[in-house]
Amino acid sequence: MDLIQGTGIAKGYSGHQALDDVHIHITSGSIHGLLGPNGAGKTTLIRILMRILFPDKGSILYRGESLSPHHVDKMGYLPEERGLYKKMSVWDQLLYFGRLRGLSRADARTKARRWLEKLDLARWQHRKTQDLSKGMQQKVQFAIAVLHEPEFLIMDEPFSGFDPINAALIRDEILAMKKEGRTIVLSTHNMTSVEELCDEITLLHRSRVVLAGRMTEIKNRYKTGEYLIRFRGHHISFASALWTSGQITGKLEDGAYTTLTVKPLEAGGLNKVLQNVLPVAEIVEVRERLPSMNDIFLQAVGAHSSLNTQSSLSE
Question: Residue 80 has what pLDDT?
Fold first, then answer.
């Protein structure tokens, strides 16, 4: 079931079309990656989903109802830019934003203590925000975004400024919230995070959606029919045995082992490839090569750019 269903969303500023006929479906209980190059329209779309901005055209449904102010109470938002009061203590900041989000003073205090412990911030709770590192400030901002336990959470570059340890901490908290049934939008340029976390994506480029769907379906759509074969043996003998059944498109040597990227020359030809090379090599591993999200991102954006260029030249 869709938590969010956006149809035909358009938004323009003076002389610039930020969003043009954008359709987005965000499945309830999923982690949804909102991707795109700088200037693609991601921030505008986020602000429309949060009712900070309003679209010129189109509609947005929240659980089948027209998006309204009371839905915003169920949302949390972690912006890319800092939105903290520099001279306010961490503790006072958590209480203040918790009360703004409708928590009682007692609930705000209880939840603030819990998140201070979870994010290893307790010893900093009485320090002013301006005295914290960028990573610490980001953790405070994360705590503020989730303090009221929103059912729908939008995070814009949530791993910005984090070292690997704290990035892993935040990643684990995001996965825990998904396990609780929360719906999360993750806007990021970090394709590794997309690979690890996202169930589905929407990719924007030049104000339009160029790719959307489940991650597994998209990866299958972009796969090339190649396999990674790791073996011990002489790669020239391997290549000679292979030449009638497959084409080598990549090579990686790792000590006594060699990994070749092989594309069978006929559909379903992996068995034929293995039959030919088994006499000359000890096969250690065989797995299908699926494209990375970085590969897919570059290919989809590049194809859309080429299409736009051709369209412009034909006008």
Answer: 84
Indicate the SS3 state at residue 150.
coil
208 bridge partner residues:
205
Cα dihedral across residues 35, 38, 40, 45: positive or negative: positive
Q: Give Cβ neighbours of residue 5 (< 8 Å, ≥ 6 apart).
A: 24, 25, 26, 60, 61, 64
pLDDT value at residue 161: 81
Q: What is the CATH number of domain 1-74+152-161+181-223+291-315?
A: 3.40.50.300
Secondary structure letter of residue 124 according to DSSP = G
> For helices 105-118 and 134-146, what crossing angle results, to 10°?
140
Segment 1-39, tens digit of pLDDT: 899 999 999 999 988 899 999 999 999 999 999 999 998
Confidence (pTM)? 0.87
**Regions of the chain with pLDDT less than 50:** 311-315
Q: Given this structure, which CATH class describes domain 224-288?
A: alpha beta
Token pair 């059912």 in the structure block, residue: 151
Domain ranges of the chain: 1-74+152-161+181-223+291-315, 80-150, 224-288
Q: In what order do the strands lie in the sheet with 282-288?
A: 246-254, 257-264, 227-232, 282-288
